[in-house]
Design goal:
By secondary structure, the protein is α+β, with helices and mostly antiparallel strands. It is built from 19 helices and 14 strands. The chain binds iron/sulfur cluster and fe (iii) ion. The site of iron/sulfur cluster has 12 residues, from helix 5 and helix 16.
Length: about 500
């Protein structure tokens, strides 16, 4: 697609990524055209839906760009208010509902917002010009309304060693060369969500760095079709069902997620696309702000949970027992868990605050609590949905058997549940639950819920850092009569999380 042609609809988006000649491998073969590949296409459809939602519900999924004055996807927007943070979450829930999977665009959104404030503060500390460069980059992205992916997670090698201590230095992405025009990077990023479906990628460090790791402290933007990039597509459970054709056994024919390993081999980043170059002491701030945004972006899973709750209620109806009290109770339990995820995510956004750059940042304590819930609650919701589906979900015959000239009538006769419910509909609903709890979209609903945006222990570390035990101990000491009432911390003295909790409206 020519640079200045702006993407508006899902169809525009699909056109824009057609014929790019990316170096993508799947099952040992180079993929000539991702949009034609039955395993990859559902992930492309999910990204396309982010644009189509913008057409159908512009207030929810688009904003007016302050840089171009034109309507752009909310995924490219910098949050200039608490409402902007909250609306990100509402858009994510809706897209989870519409796709039943990961729609892949939140990493780029969250990375852009984190970089907006971090580049500002880096410039303040070092007199660099990263913030203006980053705004120029954003302006370019807004003009075309592109998909920007974020590439953060390094493959990490030996987890006990720092980047510069690894035997193979490529186990963390690093600068391997530089000239007057820019730098060259090598290394690999693991499980990169939506990378093949993006137009540009923001490459960032994955963790706190020390001076010895200076050459790993690099942030830059590269076009997805830049030279020296190889994508090795991650396979998903039951992915081969997409190669079988048919419309039942996949469970969700339309939408899926996407993760791939991205390998950089001396990939060039031009000077104007570099937003950190050696400022290792800002790597931790970038990672922490990014994860604050991203861990509450996981309210996407409450949208996916809505679909699974609906599927569980539907299968109970198809089985003829919608009114059984234990069924109702299980649906209530699923909803309670699902709304807990949403509640913590949205609370993190509502308790956001303005950074020096003017960009709003959400509350990191509640964001970590949200993501920590997400490492557990979808598993319980999935367990209950399997309980309501019954064992037939994993033992029923295939679509080909249902349509077989000799045994098809047997499948139809013995798969019948409540009279009047078509057997195909019951099988489709069972396959959807299988898809979301064991199949392709369980990758997103379950394992990505566990490890995406950091594994459970990463959230516990952040919660531990922010929990302000000294303050809480003082509360208890005063009430226990060990310290006088005058020893109470005043509201003015509060810092960190509790300063945000008790911040009064201006
Ligand atoms: Fe967005 Fe959720 Fe996918 Fe992450 S897992 S990119 S938050 S939809
Ligand atoms: Fe993710």
């Amino acid at each position: 697609m020519p640079q200045n042609q702006k993407i508006v609809s899902g169809a525009d988006y699909i056109k824009s990524i057609t014929g790019r000649n990316l170096n993508v491998y799947l099952f040992g073969d180079r993929v000539a055209e991702p949009i034609d590949h039955p395993i990859m296409r559902p992930s492309i459809n999910a990204v396309a839906e982010t644009y189509d939602l913008g057409v159908r519900a512009p207030e929810l999924a688009t904003v007016i760009s302050p840089f171009t004055g034109e309507r752009i996807s909310r995924f490219l927007a910098i949050c200039s208010s608490i409402d902007d943070l909250v609306l990100q979450n509402k858009m994510q829930r809706k897209l989870g509902q519409n796709t039943g999977t990961c729609f892949q665009r939140c990493v780029g959104m969250d990375a852009s917002n984190a970089l907006y404030s971090v580049t500002y503060e880096m410039d303040e500390a070092y007199g660099t010009n990263y913030h203006n460069r980053f705004k120029d980059f954003l302006t370019q992205m807004h003009r075309s309304n592109y998909v920007v992916g974020g590439a953060m997670t390094d493959v990490k090698g030996d987890r006990s060693l720092a980047p510069h201590q690894q035997v193979d230095q490529d186990l963390f992405v690093r600068i391997v060369d530089r000239d007057d025009e820019g730098i060259y990077i090598s290394g690999a990023k693991a499980h990169q969500t939506g990378c093949v479906n993006s137009h540009w990628m923001l490459v960032m460090p994955t963790m706190r760095l020390s001076e010895a790791d200076k050459e790993f402290a690099i942030v830059g933007a590269v076009p997805v079709d830049a030279q020296g990039i190889t994508y090795i597509y991650g396979r998903q459970s039951c992915d081969l069902r997409a190669m079988e054709g048919g419309s039942i056994d996949q469970g969700n024919n339309l939408y899926g997620g996407q993760e791939a390993m991205v390998v950089f081999n001396r990939t060039f980043i031009s000077n104007e696309m570099i937003f950190m170059d050696g400022e290792y002491d800002f790597a931790a701030m970038l990672v922490e702000r990014f994860t604050a945004y991203h861990r509450r972006s996981y309210v996407c899973k409450s949208g996916v949970g809505d679909v699974l709750i609906g599927a569980a209620a539907s299968i109970a109806e198809m089985n003829g027992i919608p009114k059984a009290s234990h069924i109702k109770d299980k649906l209530v339990e699923m909803t309670h868990l699902n709304e807990t995820i949403y509640a913590t995510g949205i609370a993190s956004s509502y308790q956001g605050y303005e950074t020096k750059s003017g960009c709003y940042l959400c509350d990191d304590m509640i964001s970590n609590v949200c993501k920590h819930h997400v490492t557990k609650m979808p598993y319980e919701i999935a367990r209950i949905s399997q309980d309501l589906a019954g064992g037939i979900m994993v033992t029923m015959p295939s679509e080909k058997d249902l349509n077989h000239p000799e045994i098809g009538h047997l499948v139809r006769k013995y798969m019948q549940a409540k009279d009047g419910v078509p057997v195909e509909d019951r099988m489709k609903m069972l396959r959807l639950i299988e898809n979301m709890t064991l199949g392709r979209n369980a990758v997103g609903y379950l394992t990505e819920s566990m490890h995406g945006a950091g594994s459970p222990q990463a959230q516990r570390i952040q919660i531990g850092r922010a929990m302000q035990l000294e303050y809480k101990k003082r509360l208890s000491r005063v009430l226990a009569g060990i310290e006088p009432e005058g020893a109470r911390t005043t509201l003015d003295e509060l810092t960190g999380y509790f300063a945000r909790v008790f911040a009064l409206p201006e």
